């Protein structure tokens, strides 16, 4: 059985990363080729595993592969075990499939970067860690992948670290994610205390016996972790800064895969969320708030990557919302995660292609009319655009529609928010589309937009095809529902009005969004951003998330640190030195030591030893 | 008389120290080679002992000879799971420090060879401390370790080294004095019960009255808390580590300070189990303060070496917390932590030392953009930093997580607050990395050379172990286990059973 070789999925990119990062300059010439080959091999193997799995009955598709005992301490035993099941295989295919395309694209995108080999090393490290994250069968092992992708993200956001902004953004991403890690750490500790294990199988079996307080706490801890990794409110602030990384990184890590790990974590922990309404509701609220917040931020950004990053936050908010709805939403959360992986990777790479032709300018106010010089980029971007808007028959139509339906079935307010989000999405995406590809050209005279080389456009074309056809996972006989049901369960939801009416309403709202954007942005767009209304400024400043963090955490933290440093130098040390002075004028002797009478130490040792002897004898004689 | 394995381990570096000093002053290189040779042979021997211990258990290595009959003092050595781990750490770090510090001692107050001889002397005494099974012998060796360390700090290092060395000495002596009082007290108790004996095995059988036990405990604990060092007895460490050469700092923080936490397990828990349990609430709070206070101060430092020293104060807080959580995860985690911290801090100090020796400054503000000119140096620095912040996948993660989980199972509030330490750790490491290694290349950095082969050679084993034991920590965890079980039994505590035990069938 080849599922026993599942570890190869992780090992191949891990070994490749090691070769590229340790091999140094010797691997410069062919590093990018090896780096690209690794995810392709994992993808091919993933496809084999997938078809094997399909050959089994729906209840026999989960296989655990125990590699070795990681450690055992007291009654706790943690195994290095992988779980390959219908849920993890979908992630494997997404990560390695989209990952391979982005590696290929990067060959062209990073061609002139002297550190391209290292870039591929980091990308491979990411692929290996991400695969470990989704294949691990124990929460503690998930943590290893979880932090591994965080490290890769740190290294890649800061890839151009000679720029201060990139280095700062990288550090911020890591530190904010560490706040989320508090949640994951506490969750695993609680699992050890509750179940004596953090293996999925044990936790799933024990979850229903857990008190509601503990279930809620576990759910909230896991949600905190998910918020960090998936840039959900209140830990969203790092994602927009993360756009400092090279664009393929934004596509792979900060759109298609890593940032969706939080959704994976929640869905994977469904057994816990099923016994706690409070934590599930918290997930829904976080998702809804982020879906709207991200969309609003997306409306105000002139930086094409930041507009897309706001959109990513928002779309993951939708997935989170769906995951919080329980069995009615799990499948659609994952479904949307997959289609989003296609169309958002497509659009990010498209943005990269535009930047490639525009001397790395990211400001959409300097674009305009690019549909003519960049025909392929334009056409493929348009596919992504139609998909994220949810225009039938593009992939996003099926996945997002289902989430809005399920939201309405659960709660009208949440449903209305989801619907409103769809309208805002239509607005900001149309805005991006118009500012970039339509209108008059606004680029400077020394910029000569051109289409990217084939190594970059082919991945775009494939991703565009997936943006169009990805919906087949659902409309072809609800395949994804049947596929995932044995793992995460499924319940039909019942929206207040028929599905068809829901769809028509959603499309109408989307149409409104488009129309508003067209009315506003069909005219000439100034090269410099106008001051804008308070609302625009609010959105431009990321809803004052950073300002809040700075005021509440950073500043007080800095004051605290400075005060403590001062106290430690003056206070604690001074106090002890002062005490020393009190006790027999040690400070005077201290000065004498400094003048070089080192030998006197030997003397004091002799005295000390003599003291021991005397003391012992005295006791013995008494 | 048969010479036992442990005696051999102890003698070998000692003989090496003398041999190194006997080499004529003009042949400094030969002296260094002799020293390195002895440390490598000691390492090989230690490996043989460790493998033997793993296979056959502790009996083969116990040695007991009467030393001073009147006091009941013995020359008694032996190994347990905690001791062997620290002996291995000592034997491992010594040659690594020598290779990394190959040229660091040429401008010291004393000859270059004496630096290497003192290192060997320290190795011999440390091995003795970690394997002594007689309290009197332990005390003598414990105090004796101060001598080589005093000369290593005071003889080689920064301009304030004399001040730092004396401060180190005074703090340690003060702690030692209190321990001495307790050592004498133990003798009294032992003598009253019959024939006096300082053997651990005999002392454990004593029936000590509650008050006496608590006083004796406090004497030992104070000495160990100064050594470990715990807040508020910590201020000597940043001075010492800031002034000493990086190699000395590794020996100080990586090995010598572990005597404190080692002593807490073997002597505080071992001899005074009831008093240890009695002191638990206070000690845990002190440990928690150390974790957070050390980390916050590390964030605020402007000097690379002092920063690393403060990170260690935070790490030692974790170790003490794990010990006094009195759970098998906590104790195992703490023991493993001692080993892993030795590896990660050694890597951090040594790479920082490489950096500082190139630029001639330890001020963070004097650096910037190093990654651009010396990528291997920057890469190893980041790696060491990541292992110090306990990145999952690297060995320190497992020990830190065990400590936290072990604490969590009994003391939820303390553990939850301590988890904040992982965010602070990310801050102090990554801020330092960002300020020194990234951004535009600063003046004075343009011509910085990347690591040479010798420097890489010293770091490589640490990197391999940190990754290797992160993926496969089982051998070390298994070696520690029996000692932890014994200590738990001695203190009379058992782990809390899971609230909802899930049996195999239910899975």
- Main β-sheet of chain B, in a few words? 2 strands, antiparallel
Class by alpha and beta content of chain B: mainly alpha
| Residue windows where pLDDT falls under 50 for at least 5 positions of chain A | 583-588, 592-599
* Number of beta strands of chain B: 2
One letter per element, helices H and strands E, the order of chain A comes to: HHEEHHHHHHHHHHHHHHHHHHHHHHHH
Order of helices and strands of chain B: HHEEHHHHHHHHHHHHHHHHHHH
Tertiary shape of chain A: globular
Number of extended strands of chain A? 2
Shape of chain B: globular
Report the total helices of chain B: 21
**Mean pLDDT score of chain A:** 88
Structural notes for this entry:
- The complex is a heterodimer of chains A (622) and B (507).
- Chain A has 622 residues and is mostly helical.
- Chain A is built from 26 helices and 2 strands.
- Among the domains of chain A are: 296-530, no CATH class; 552-621, no CATH class.
- Chain A has a two-stranded antiparallel sheet.
- Chain A is globular and about 95 Å long.
- Mean pLDDT of chain A is 88; it is low at 583-588 and 592-599.
- With 507 residues, chain B is mostly helical.
- Chain B has 21 helices and 2 strands.
- In chain B, a hairpin with a 4-residue loop joins strand 1 and strand 2 (73-77).
């Amino acid at each position: 059985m080849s599922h026993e070789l599942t570890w190869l999925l992780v090992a191949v990119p891990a070994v490749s990363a090691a070769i590229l990062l340790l091999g140094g300059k010797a691997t410069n010439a062919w590093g990018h080729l090896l780096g690209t080959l690794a995810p392709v091999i994992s993808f091919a193997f993933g496809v084999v595993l997938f078809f094997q799995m399909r050959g089994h009955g729906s209840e026999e598709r989960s296989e655990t592969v125990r590699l070795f005992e990681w450690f055992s301490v007291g009654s706790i035993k943690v195994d290095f075990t992988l779980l390959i099941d219908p849920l993890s295989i979908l992630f494997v295919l997404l990560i390695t499939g989209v990952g391979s395309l982005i590696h290929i694209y990067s060959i062209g995108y990073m061609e002139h970067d002297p550190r391209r080999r290292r870039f591929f090393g980091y990308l491979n490290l990411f692929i290996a860690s991400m695969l470990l994250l989704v294949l691990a069968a124990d929460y503690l092992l998930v943590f290893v992948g979880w932090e591994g992708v965080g490290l890769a993200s740190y290294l890649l956001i800061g890839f151009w670290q000679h720029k201060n902004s990139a280095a700062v953004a990288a550090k911020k991403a890591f530190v904010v994610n560490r706040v989320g890690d508090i949640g994951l750490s506490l969750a695993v500790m609680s699992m050890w205390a509750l179940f004596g294990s953090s293996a999925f199988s044990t936790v799933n079996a024990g979850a229903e016996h857990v008190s509601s307080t503990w279930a809620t706490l576990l759910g909230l801890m896991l949600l905190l972790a998910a918020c960090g990794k998936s840039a959900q409110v209140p830990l969203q602030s790092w994602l927009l800064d993360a756009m400092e990384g090279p664009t393929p990184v934004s596509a792979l890590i900060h759109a298609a895969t890593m940032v969706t790990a939080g959704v994976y974590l929640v869905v994977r922990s469904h057994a816990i969320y099923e016994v706690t309404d409070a934590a599930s509701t918290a997930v829904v609220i976080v998702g809804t708030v982020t879906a709207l917040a991200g969309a609003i931020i997306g409306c105000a950004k002139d930086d094409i990557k930041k507009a897309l990053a706001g959109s990513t936050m928002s779309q993951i908010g939708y997935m989170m919302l769906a995951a919080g709805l329980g069995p009615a939403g799990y499948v659609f959360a994952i479904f949307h995660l997959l289609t989003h992986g296609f169309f958002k990777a497509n659009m990010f790479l498209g943005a990269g292609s535009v930047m490639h032709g525009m001397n790395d300018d990211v400001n959409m106010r300097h674009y305009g009319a690019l549909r003519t010089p960049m025909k392929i980029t334009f056409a493929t971007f348009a596919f992504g655009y139609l998909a994220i808007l949810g225009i039938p028959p593009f992939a996003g139509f099926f996945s997002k529609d289902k989430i809005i339906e399920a939201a309405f079935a659960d709660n009208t307010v949440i449903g209305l928010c989801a619907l409103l989000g769809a309208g805002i999405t239509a607005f900001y995406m149309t805005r991006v589309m118009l500012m970039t590809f339509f209108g008059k050209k606004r680029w400077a005279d020394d910029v000569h937009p051109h289409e990217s080389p084939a190594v970059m456009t082919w991945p775009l074309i494939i991703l565009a095809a997936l943006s169009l056809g990805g919906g087949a996972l659902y409309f072809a006989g609800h395949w994804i529902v049947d596929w995932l049901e044995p793992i995460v369960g499924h319940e039909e939801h019942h929206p207040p009005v028929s599905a068809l009416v829901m769809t028509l309403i959603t499309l109408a709202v989307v149409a409104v969004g488009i129309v508003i954007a067209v009315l506003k942005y069909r005219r000439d767009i100034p090269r410099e951003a106008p001051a804008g209304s308070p609302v625009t400024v609010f959105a431009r400043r990321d809803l004052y998330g950073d300002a809040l963090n700075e005021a509440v955490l950073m500043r007080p933290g800095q004051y605290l640190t400075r005060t403590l440093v001062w106290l430690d130098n003056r206070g604690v040390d001074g106090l002890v030195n002062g005490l020393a002075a009190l006790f027999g004028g040690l400070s005077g002797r201290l000065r004498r030591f400094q003048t070089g009478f080192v030998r006197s130490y030997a003397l004091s040792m002799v005295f000390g030893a003599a003291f021991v002897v005397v003391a012992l004898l005295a006791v013995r004689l008494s | 008389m048969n010479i036992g394995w442990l005696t051999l381990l102890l003698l070998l570096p000692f003989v090496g120290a003398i041999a190194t000093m006997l080499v004529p002053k003009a042949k400094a290189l030969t002296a260094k080679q002799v020293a390195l040779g002895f440390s490598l042979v000691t390492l090989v021997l230690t490996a043989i002992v460790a493998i033997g211990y793993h296979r056959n258990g502790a009996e083969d290595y116990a040695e007991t000879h009467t030393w001073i009959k009147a006091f009941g003092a013995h020359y008694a050595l032996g190994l347990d799971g905690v001791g062997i781990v620290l002996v291995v750490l000592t034997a491992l770090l010594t040659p690594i420090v020598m290779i990394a510090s190959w040229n660091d001692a040429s401008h010291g107050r004393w000859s270059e060879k004496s630096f290497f001889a003192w290192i060997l002397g320290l190795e011999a005494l440390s091995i003795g401390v970690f394997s002594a099974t007689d309290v009197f012998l332990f005390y003598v060796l414990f105090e004796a370790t101060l001598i080589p360390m005093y000369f290593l700090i005071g003889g080689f290092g920064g301009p304030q080294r004399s001040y730092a060395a004396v401060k180190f000495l005074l703090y340690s002596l003060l702690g030692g004095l209190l321990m001495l009082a307790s050592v004498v007290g133990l003798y009294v108790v032992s003598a009253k019960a019959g024939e006096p004996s300082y053997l651990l095995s005999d002392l454990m059988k004593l029936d000590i009255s509650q008050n006496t036990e608590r006083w004796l405990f406090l004497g030992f604990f104070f000495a160990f808390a100064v050594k470990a060092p715990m807040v508020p007895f910590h201020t000597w460490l940043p001075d010492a580590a800031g002034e000493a050469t990086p190699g000395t700092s590794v020996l100080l923080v990586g090995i010598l300070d572990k005597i404190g936490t080692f002593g807490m397990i073997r002597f505080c828990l071992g001899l005074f189990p009831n008093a240890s349990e009695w002191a638990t609430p206070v000690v845990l709070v002190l440990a928690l303060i150390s974790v957070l206070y050390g980390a916050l101060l590390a964030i605020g430092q402007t000097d690379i070496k002092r920063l690393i020293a403060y990170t260690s104060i935070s790490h030692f807080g974790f170790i003490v917390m794990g010990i006094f959580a009195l759970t098998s995860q906590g104790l195992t985690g703490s023991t493993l932590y001692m080993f892993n911290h030795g590896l990660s801090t050694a890597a951090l100090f040594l790479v920082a030392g490489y950096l500082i020796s190139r630029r001639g400054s330890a001020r963070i503000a004097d650096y910037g953009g190093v990654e651009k000119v010396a990528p291997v140096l920057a890469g190893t620095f980041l790696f060491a930093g990541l292992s110090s912040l306990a990145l999952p996948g690297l060995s320190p993660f497992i020990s830190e997580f065990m400590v936290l989980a072990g604490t969590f199972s009994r003391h939820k509030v303390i553990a939850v607050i301590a988890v904040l330490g992982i965010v602070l750790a990310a801050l102090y490491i990554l801020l330092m990395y960002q300020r020194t290694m990234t951004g535009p290349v600063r003046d004075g950095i343009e011509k910085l050379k990347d690591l040479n082969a010798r420097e890489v050679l010293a770091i490589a084993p640490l990197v391999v172990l940190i990754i290797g034991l992160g993926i496969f920590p089982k051998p070390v965890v298994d070696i520690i286990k029996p000692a932890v079980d014994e200590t738990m039994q001695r203190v009379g505590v058992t782990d809390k059973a899971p609230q909802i035990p899930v049996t195999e069938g239910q899975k």
